[in-house]
Amino acid sequence: MLRTFVAVADLGSFTAAAAAEGYTQSAVSRQIAALEDVCGVELFARGARGVRPTPAGESLLPHARGLLDRLADTARALDGLRRLDTGTLRLGAFPTANAALVPRALARFRARHPGVRPLLREGMTERLLPMLEGGELDIAVVSTHKHPSIAADELVTLADDALLVALPSTHRLAGHDRVSLADLADEPWIVADNPEAIATMRARCESAGFVPQTPLRAAEWISKLGLVAEGFGVALVPALAATAMARDGVVLRGVAPDQPRRTVYAAMGRHARRSPAVTAFLTDLRDVAEELRPRPPA
């Protein structure tokens, strides 16, 4: 309606405006009449040689142009979001996902969509899920490391991630391909200093027949592996991040007979299910997770 009003004002004719906008003349007349009813005033003075805006029409004209300009800007911005030329991707991930999975997926995403700005928040699953639910994040990489299941609306499985045991390279079992947890019953275990991590470690070890000693508590993987390298204990390390955690003095071995595992998911916020940026980044996450998946020996 406003677009038709501006066309009539610019062209000075209902007939010319109808041709320019692809309407019939009667349709233009109806739109202008409806707008005048809304405004409660006459917007055009009709004459034999065409029409011209009344003072009220002249007053409305700059506002109508401004609204149409803002509408065009909004349409261009939305089109840019759809085409991933611009916008923001708000991402959350747990620490070991940020070792290799997330950086590689972000690198692929950036190569294809350099105009989209990623914002990353790191945290454990129990912190990320409320942020996702509250609309602070669009997508989060979470895991069942401390929880048997995850309560979230939209979950996409990325990996079935094995947990490896990190041993000093001089350890008596370092030459084995797989190590039993029971064989490490007398070792100090290095674990994060929070109740959930300690409880998870204890449950895994108790299923192997012993209660773990956890005198050394460290949250960061670089700290854990530094302590392992110097012979202060052993630790469980996710296979998903094993390549990024390689360091001198440490070997990573499979666990026998029952390899502990966790499931890694991409969880999406309800508000972001149809987001083009989330959809595109999810594809990159799945592809990189597949590349990082350990392959059986030939």
From TrEMBL:
Belongs to the LysR transcriptional regulatory family. PANTHER family: LYSR SUBSTRATE-BINDING, TRANSCRIPTIONAL DUAL REGULATOR HCAR-RELATED. The keyword Transcription applies. PROSITE patterns: HTH_LYSR. This is LysR family transcriptional regulator. It holds the Pfam family HTH_1. GO terms for molecular function: DNA binding; DNA-binding transcription factor activity. The keyword Glycoprotein does not apply. Residues 1-54 form the HTH lysR-type domain. CDD domains: PBP2_LTTR_like_6. Keywords: DNA-binding, Transcription, Transcription regulation. One of its GO terms (cellular component) is protein-DNA complex. The lineage of its organism: Bacteria, Bacillati, Actinomycetota, Actinomycetes, Streptosporangiales. It comes from the Bacteria. It comes from Actinomadura spongiicola.
